[in-house]
Amino acid sequence: MLEEKNPSIAVLLPCYNEEVTIGKVVRDFRVALPDAAIYVYDNNSTDRTAEIATAEGAIVRKEPRQGKGNVIRSMFENIDADVYVMADGDDTYPADAAPDMVAKVLEGYDMVIGDRLSSTYFQENKRPFHNFGNRLVRGSINHLFRAHVTDIMTGYRAFSFTFVKTYPVLSRGFEVETEMTIHSLNNNLRLFEMPIQYRDRPEGSVSKLDTVGDGIKVMSTIFRMIREYKPLPFFGTLGLIIGIIGIMLCGWVTAEFVGTGMVVHFPTLIGAIMLVIVGLLLIVTGIILDVITKNDRKTFIVDANRFAYAKRHWPHPLPPRDAAPYRNNQ
Fold first, then answer.
1. Maximum CA pair distance of the chain?
2. What local confidence, expressed as pLDDT, does residue 323 receive?
3. If one looks up domain 9-229 in CATH, what number appears?
4. What are the DSSP calls for 134-181, one per residue?
5. If residue 10 lies in a helix (H) or strand (E), which one and from where to where?
6. Bridge pairing between strands 83-86 and 157-160
7. How far apart are CA 170 and CA 69, in angstroms?
């Protein structure tokens, strides 16, 4: 096995109408990571984002499916590198933190999280509902997965090759970062949080986030992934609540029968028995799905080990798929 002396690095910048900032972002990452290939994925921009990125020497590609999740899926499918650094094209994340994030991945971490919330996020971000949403999502996920992740929804991350090639991107929009974090916690991946200096968008740059709409999507993603990754607590709790209601109703009808010798509320008794049966079925469903989920985790570990083994035994470090890092590939 050969030691990787010059690992290949890919900087991934998903963009939609970022002509105000994309030029500076590309230049900053070029200075921070001079040997990296910088990819700008243009997600149907109607401004000069692609043109400016090309002029700055980035590799520009088009992604016609709208949504950040779709862009990241395309990036992960089509780009090969030893280390991936993902950021936004809005100049809110400091490029000078990237070398330290890359170093942590090379140490063996699967994902390095650029933690905004431990530094300047709550001072720089002028949208109070976003601040509330970050706290809500963070508290919910950490409680359910018994974790201590500070920034669940940050867009500044670094990944290993194995993480990128084994991570199934299911979300289409901005909820993809939440999905990444839950996926990592569920599969017990090696995470490292690195505080970064977040800054708000510069004047003239407009956020694409819909506070209410994207917030609903994020909460829906959490609900869906809890149902998939924690089926026993999800279905078991639901079944227990329904079953207890049914037992209480049965007890009420039974007490009435003991006092009068008659079942006066016969429909209530039928409904109560049905609730008990539904509760038991939900609990059994949770047990069965929990077994399936644990088997899926085993399969994921085996697949991840295969990718890691194959990568270690390739004769050379992974090159980017583009022969030249500055070539435009539209």
1. 89
2. 42
3. 3.90.550.10
4. HHHHHHHHHHHHT---S-SS-S-EEEEHHHHHH------STTHHHHHH
5. strand 9-15
6. antiparallel
7. 7
Strand partners, 37: 10
- Cα-Cα-Cα-Cα torsion 67, 216, 166, 315, nearest 10 degrees, comes to 50
pLDDT of 326 strictly over 50: no
- The Cα 54–Cα 330 span in angstroms is 9
- Starting at the edge strand found earlier in the chain, the sheet holding 83-86 runs 59-62, 37-42, 9-15, 83-86, 157-160, 111-115, 191-195
Tokens representing 233 are 């607590």
Residue 200, helix vs strand vs coil:
coil
Residue 303 Rama label (left phi>0; alpha psi -120 to 50; beta): alpha
Closest of 21, 24, 1, 26 to residue 11, by C-alpha: 26
Beta bridge pairs of residue 191: 111
Give the Cβ contact number of residue 223 at 10 Å.
12
Place of tokens 């539904």: 278
SS3 36: coil
Q: Which two tokens stand for residue 75?
A: 């990036």
Question: What are residue 85's phi and psi, to 5 degrees?
Answer: -120, 120
**pLDDT of amino acid 131:** 64
What is the C-alpha separation between 115 and 195, in angstroms, rounded?
4
Residue 211 carries which DSSP code? H
**pLDDT of residue 313 exceeding 80:** no
Task: Give the pLDDT confidence of 237-288 residue by residue, as tens digits.
Answer: 999 999 999 999 999 888 887 878 777 788 888 999 999 999 999 999 999 9
The arithmetic mean of pLDDT across residues 66-88, rounded, is: 94
